Amino acid sequence: MTVLFGQLFTGISIGAVLLLIALGLALTFGQMNVINMAHGEFIMAGAYTTYVLQQSITGAGLSLVVALPVAFVVAGTMGVLLEVLLIRRLYARPLDTLLVTWGVSLMLQQLARDVFGSPNVQTRAPELLTGNVALPGGLTIANNRLFILALALAAVAALTLALRLTPLGRRIRAVVQNRDLAAVSGIATSRVDRTTFFLGSGLAGLAGVALTLLGPIGPTMGTNLIIDAFLVVVVGGIGQLKGSVIVAFALGVLQATGEYLTTLSVAKVIVFVAIVAFLQWRPQGLFTLRTRSLA
Amino acid sequence: MSLFRDRRILAGAMTLVAAAALTACGSKTSDEGSAAGVTADVSGDTVKVGLLNSLSGTMAISEVTVRDSIMLAVEEINAAGGVLGKKIQPVGEDGASDWPTFAEKAEKLISEDRVAAVFGCWTSASRKAVKPVFEKNKALLFYPVQYEGLEQSPYIFYTGATTNQQIVPGLDYLKSQGAKSVYLVGSDYVFPRTANKIIKAYATANGMTVLGEDYAPLGSTEFGTIVNKVKSSGADAVFNTLNGDSNVAFFKEYKSAGLTAAAMPVVSVSIAEEEVKGIGTQYLEGQLTAWNYYQTTPGAANSKFVAAYKAKYGADKPTSDPMEAAYVGVHLWKAMVEKAGAFDVEKVRAASDGITFDAPEGLVTVDGKTQHIAKTARIGKIGADGLITEVWNSGKPVAPDPYLKTYPWASGLS
Amino acid sequence: MTAVTPAPPSTAVHPAPVGAVPPGRPAGRSRLRTLAGFAFGAAVLFAVAPLVLSDFRLALLAKYLCVAMVAVGIGIAWGRGGMLTLGQGVFFGLGGYAMAMHLKLADAGPGGMPDFMQLYGQLDELPLWWRPFASPWFALPATVLLPMIVAFGLGSLVFRRRVRGAYFAILSQALAAAMVILLIGQQGTTGGTNGLTDIKGFFGYDLDDPVNQRMVYFVIAGTLLALLALTRQLIHSRYGELLVAVRDGEERVRFLGYDPASVKLVAYVVAAGMAGLAGALFVPAVGIISPALIGIVPSIEFVIGVAVGGRATLLGPVLGAVAVAWARTALSERFPGTWTYLQGLLFVVVVAFLPGGLASLWALARRRDVGARPVRRGWLSLGRRRAERTEVPAA
After folding, report:
1. pLDDT 10s digits, A58-68
2. Percentage helix, strand, coil, to 5, in chain C?
3. What residues of chain C, 282 to 321, have a C-beta less than 8 Å from chain A?
4. Contact B99 C332 (CB under 8 A)
């Protein structure tokens, strides 16, 4: 029983990490059909931001708190730069964005290597986040994973509210649903695109800060995560947040269960087979955005 | 596309191919000696050696510092007058963490640059990929990393530890500390799988139980489930053969699960000072490692090596076992060449037996039969300052035994 | 093919598709010119290259030409069919492993086992699924048929359910990732991360001998030319036009009574077969096949070669693949520390600013106004700028 709950929580926390990474993609991929392979490098930028801040801010807790907004802005700014310099030219060719941003991601990795050195760097986590909560029955829940779960849920809540309630959110939704109609209604679609890209990339930065609690901080840290995150968005349904949320947790639990029963390698293959099977059932993802366009 | 245009493009394309081909052969050397056994070009007053490490891709996190340390050895030798009166001219290539690229670059170093020896490679996969290239061309590779043994190529010198110089002493140490059960965690590739096979044979013969065995794909950073399994097994110790990034995630998870070095120590064979720096002592303090060299290893040779390294690359840069083994490799090659009196590969090989070098890790001796070197095994404990201090050593250099022929319990392994 | 095109009406592809032959061009004359082009290509590959290149560079060219074969397939599936397949490494790997398994068994001799199996797998006898590969009559067809069967299985699932565009791209990418993990996990029987290395012989010929390496090169060059001829026939056939039509307006083709899923499936399966053949020939040329060659990164690099060369042309993919692979070697030899910047920059600049690839440079040089091409803005893309999935065709 303990093991069962332990694994369930592990699955949920894998899901939370996936969600945090996929959230930014759900925005950029969902709204603009941009397949941004450099998203992983924005995560890396967020993680390195934490590292840099710790050089001057000594308290591990304080530096983490400061790092969250700073990383959001750093990664967001990188995203806007990418949008303005390259992606803007490629809206008519969504699949090409994948190749271009792949090139960008190669360059950013090399840049990180030259600036911060090839080996991984370390950040200190606040002591509070390296402990765990003991539950009756010998079950322990790691504090850092609770923190990431909370951060992911908070990000989803904030994003949902922003999309529902703010004027900006209305504009974003309008552009997602029908770009040309939004444009003729007086919405500056290119400015909305830029803002969306800022938000999406900024979320990657947040994910980067959170990941310093779990994994390595190095030049290639982003590449391992990106494919899983894209799968989450694709299976969840492009243009929808709730799909990504459900799918992230479902895939997390599926992977944790599969891994417990077999091995990590087999679990990954199980997840893939499940995804292909799922897309047979719902080729446009869990939730589809209903619009009047045919394509 | 009309057929008319088609043909124009076709013609243009072929011209381009021809142009590319011509450019590619800009540095073409004559075809002489391209059959088996390319001889090194030592006609000038310099001698070229190849440096083959990953400067990009996932393995760059480890291999770049090895390249730095090889360069240090080359500079030292050149400052002291070179080898047989010739200055060493290093030719660097990027293996890009991709095994076929390693093979391509090895071939290039041997047949185009005609180097006298190549220093480098890290993963077993890259070594396996270049091995046929060196054997075909009868050229020399100095391989600086501890590995899974069960190999003995006539054209490779192994300056890192084989299993009986690292894993077996690690197990001996655990046994002497009273560990009755172990849990095995490793990355999913050749070294951990082979190492764990050896560990299981050892455990069976020595009354230890192996409570579990788990592998994570290289680069994997999700260790929730594996740590859960380790924790619920209640093993006395964990034997860790994870490589690279996975170690960071594993130890972070290990600590948050409430596991400590006091309750369930982890013996790692791929965590050196450089990796400690990338993980953080917050997570590692008190954990054990098995190597042949630490930055803190006493001796004048090591003080000189550490000082020289820091002077060249920065005071905050640590030195580690693979870096030291790579550094030693260059010096051993120099000693072999000087004993042979020639750069000729077969003469160098013939001269190799019994060559000694006062290495930072202590005196090392080349065993000409296996082409491995005798090294002192050392178990260390990671301290709060990020350095590793020795808690046990084998007293004298352990003779290399890549096929574990002198260990009765290992008879079924090779 | 007959199942795909049930008596196509002559007006099947109405808005002048990119691949159509303009009327009024004398077919005989252009065939002659194409033949001349092929003869020229053959001369370069068979006479010039072996004369001017050292053994090492010729072996590299053989490797590039294998990549070019994969690129020809991608050119059909992506450039002509609009399916961005980011998982060609899987098919390349299937072909490569099938060939390598046979060669390893041949090296081991009758009844023998590949060296690594005793070492890592501790196996006493050959696993069942290895056994058929001992026979060349099974292994050689398998290098092509195995990838085609896998592609057929996957393709008939996803195309029928209309998984396309970015969905298809990411799904195919995940396939490559899963394949790599699967191979690495089965170390005892697949060689794990190491892959299958140290292949010594090729049907009785010693691969260490430079003369035999040259022979392998000639086989590869000949195969590439043959594939190009085949592809030219394919894209100029009625099926080829239908494929372009599906790319540019899938719904419209469906309304005309065709089944776009079958049309796409054929292109996907053909591309997979070419990748498998390339993998099979890569093995004797390089002497190694490993998971590092079939994962996400190499799969993307295959596609980038095609994009750089010009995706919708016949020769663009070949040129692009060779150019990218050659640039990788040349840059990393010249600038071992900084070559990844240059490589990244190359991808960005060519794909972003030269959508037709290098092939469009040729067109520019011929003063063909690329911009004057009629904008194909079908009613399908009504309302959404980004829904314009039509890839910009190259010259």
Report:
1. 888 899 999 99
2. 70, 0, 30
3. 296, 300, 303-304, 307
4. no
